[in-house]
Amino acid sequence: MKRTSACRNSRGFIALRTIAALMLPALLLSCAVFATFASKPATAQARRFNLSDIPKIVTAADAQISPDGKSIAFVVSRSNMETDGHDRQLILIDIATGAQRPLTFERKDVGSPRWSPTGDRLAFEALFRTGKQDQQQVFVLPMESGGEAFKITDATNGIEQFAWSPDGRQIAFVTADDAPNKKEIEKHNDAFEVDDDDFLTTAAPTPSHIWLISAQGGNARRLTSGSWSLPKSAPPSPPASPVSWSPDGKWITFVKQSNPHYGDSDEATVQILNVETGEIRKLTNHEKFEGFSNFSPDGSQIAYWYPRDNDPNNENEIYVAPA
């Protein structure tokens, strides 16, 4: 196992360079406007920011470059004063021309756009009515043939994260298990023991595990189970530790937490899952503090986070271990 002080993913570098190029004109304009106003004396008539300006605020996030390098899919969010929330939409931008077009309309809590390996489809998450509640599900949008996005998952407790298989035929996703006292909860006996969780917790957390489903939808196959859990993060935060496929599609690396309680998130180690057999093995001899594992492009190594000198008070560094 070796440690590196820096790590650069070439595609991520291209994404950052492209986004920076797209943002440069706006940045220069902002600087020019600032310089113009800075050169003038402040007046009593200068307008202040007020509540009516909030709906005008637009944020962009989770930019994903298409495999052919010609487009970027990203999430645009706008404040909605009537619902006391945000309206989110997937937007596609042409890198050469800067032309934009919306990909989703009137879908709630859209997020996590992910291109298929060949770029012919785009998967994303959005709310969908499942049972008595709206839950995040995975949708797939055809990008070449056109048409509406179709839902491929029916996870009772919603989707926490997902990842395309390298051949584009399957999608691995993570969802929480049902509560062991689900029937009692339905009878409004929803009391639970306060454990090592945050003060906003309203129900006992249940383990989150990995499932596998065809990119066309259908019956999902469970890959992991047990009282342990993949790490959790409170929405709308990104996954606490995303799953990563090996390039040959035979393995998935993920982070295993000893239990589903938020307060025990330090008890996390990198694991490797055999997709066909379900066999799981530990990557290193560490017992805690590992996170964000990711296969190398050739599948021979796995990079992951680990605190310097095994001390959680220190910054995380990037380590690499043979897969």
Task: Let me know the number of strands.
Answer: 20
| Outline type | globular
Uncertain spans, ≥5 residues at pLDDT below 50?
2-39
Mean pLDDT: 86
Radius of gyration from the CA trace?
22 Å
Q: How much of the sequence is in beta strands?
A: 35-45%
- Helix/strand/pairing category: mainly beta
Biggest β-sheet: strands ordered side by side in the sheet: 1-20-19-18
Order of helices and strands: EHEEEEEEEEEEHEEEEEEEEE
Percent of residues in helices: 10-25%
The helix count comes to 2
The description of the largest β-sheet is: 4 strands, antiparallel
Distance between the ends: 10 Å
SSE layout and pairing:
Elements: E1 2-4, H1 10-38, E2 58-65, E3 71-80, E4 85-94, E5 100-102, E6 111-115, E7 121-130, E8 133-142, E9 150-151, E10 161-164, E11 170-176, H2 182-186, E12 208-214, E13 221-222, E14 244-245, E15 251-257, E16 268-274, E17 280-282, E18 291-295, E19 301-307, E20 316-322
Antiparallel strand pairs: 1-20, 2-3, 3-4, 4-5, 6-7, 7-8, 8-9, 10-11, 11-12, 12-13, 14-15, 15-16, 16-17, 18-19, 19-20
Please outline what is shown here.
The chain is mainly beta and 323 residues long.
Using brief descriptors, characterize the structure shown.
323 residues; 37% strand; 2 helices; mainly beta; disordered N terminus
Account of the protein in words:
- It contains two helices and 20 strands.
- With 323 residues, it is mainly β.
- The protein starts with a strand and ends with a strand.
- The strands form five sheets. A four-stranded antiparallel β-sheet has the order 1-20-19-18, with no helix packed on it. A four-stranded antiparallel β-sheet has the order 2-3-4-5. Strands 6-7-8-9 form a four-stranded antiparallel β-sheet, with no helix packed on it.
- 11% of the residues lie in helices and 37% in strands.
- The protein is globular.
- The chain has helices spanning 10-38, 182-186; strands at residues 2-4, 58-65, 71-80, 85-94, 100-102, 111-115, 121-130, 133-142, 150-151, 161-164, 170-176, 208-214, 221-222, 244-245, 251-257, 268-274, 280-282, 291-295, 301-307, 316-322.
